[in-house]
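Quick one:
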Amino acid sequence: MSTTIFTNGKIYTGDPDHLFVQAVVVKDGLVHDLGSDADMRLQWGRSDATIIDLQGRTATAGLIDSHLHLGWLGMSFLHLDLRQARSKDEMLGLIKQKADETAPGEWIVGFGWDENLFKDGRIPTIEELDRVAPHCPIKLSRICGHANLVNSKTFEVIGYHEGIAVPAGGVVELDPATGKPTGMLLETASNLVKPHIPKPDYDKHKNALRHSIRYALEHGLTGAHTEDLRELGGLARTYRLYDELINQEGLALRCNLLVFYQFMDELRELNMRAGYGNSHVQVGAVKIFADGALGRRTAYLSAPYADDPATSGYPVHEQEELTEIVRGARSLDMPIAVHTIGDKALEMVLDSLDQFPAVAYRDRLIHTQIVRPDLLERLQHPNRIADIQPRFLAGDFPWVIDRVGEERIRYSYIWKTMMKQGIICAGGSDTPVEPIDPLLGIHAAVTRKAPGEDHAGYMPEEKLTMEEAIQLFTLGGATVTNEDHVKGTLTRGKFADMTVYSHDLFTMDPDELLETKAMMTVIGGKVCFSR
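Output:
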């Protein structure tokens, strides 16, 4: 049994029995021992031991992203990236540049526009999109993924007409003056377009996914909970891709694969359940959307939006339908993982959940951005996880204050309150909606502000300590999938998963997180990335 000793570090274990150590001894991929350099070398430093010098750097248990989309991230590397656009004109310029090099009839697929970052807050009209890309259909996803812009060529390709059946939960926005489409598709209305976009072949998906897994490792992630079935083509194909890349090629990232609810029949046919797989590739919970996003006011609120009293948003599923989806998951003994941003959407999900007994794996409420006090109490359940994305704060404030109003903002993004009340929380990025770098999420949780801002933080009473923020991305990510007994802290007998940093997280000014890099990513004692 080979021995590896990671020495000369400031290693934060997350285990209160030995919070900081200098050295970790690894055997068979597990933490075998830990303590001072001198003791570990004396006891385990035989001639055949491999010594890895951490050069005085800080390390923690391996970082885990509790909610992202590695398949979507991989494909986004191949698409038109609109995340840097800071005005409507800049966005149109990027589209025109792409269109000028695109053959007639070929698709332009783009991602990442956010009108809240635009100087004038305006988005392109369908007429403007037609001017810059008259010869090819386009589909441009907003940063949140819950709204898409298309042009007239796209409507032509999909055969749009006034009576077209729009998928439940979706909206094709119409100009109130003309009754014609504006080019904006909300929520599931994008499903009218998706079947017409040529699907990548298996090798293209595999190359894209390989890229995104390596990208995750470069940012210090040792684990990821990813929802990809819609992007990669179903459960069997998605599982095969991850198995080949991680178990066979040895990319090692520990991945939990959420199963979009429309693939539950495939789950049954393949006889897979939550936990199926091994310690590197596992089937996860059934993924459901309860509502949309605050950006385009599709998140479902219990009272109208403060800046648009005509709407409260809307649910993706009515209550009865949502309950039936949960029933279907429970018939397979499956937990659920539900996108829920608005307080009314969260209420609906909890109403459905309350009708069924818990299963072996925990249910997760993803995002939980607006949580009324009465809903906080209902989240205090050992089988429920609040799967939060701290980095959302950096992108949503200050405009979200006007959107939901001063009263409602007091129970929004309240992570400190949730943790104080005993709600189990885990931290994710939702990449590519937000950057994958978990240190940006930790920065948002600790400072409550966006990079470059100079103030005390939005709702500073909700700031987390550095230790609490790290726990979100370590033990929190392990607890979601009942794996806190094998990972999430550096404890004897647990997986030897570690992230090593360029700066000392525990003595720095929190803004130094923005300059901090993952220097080494260790999974099962194996160095999977090193700078």
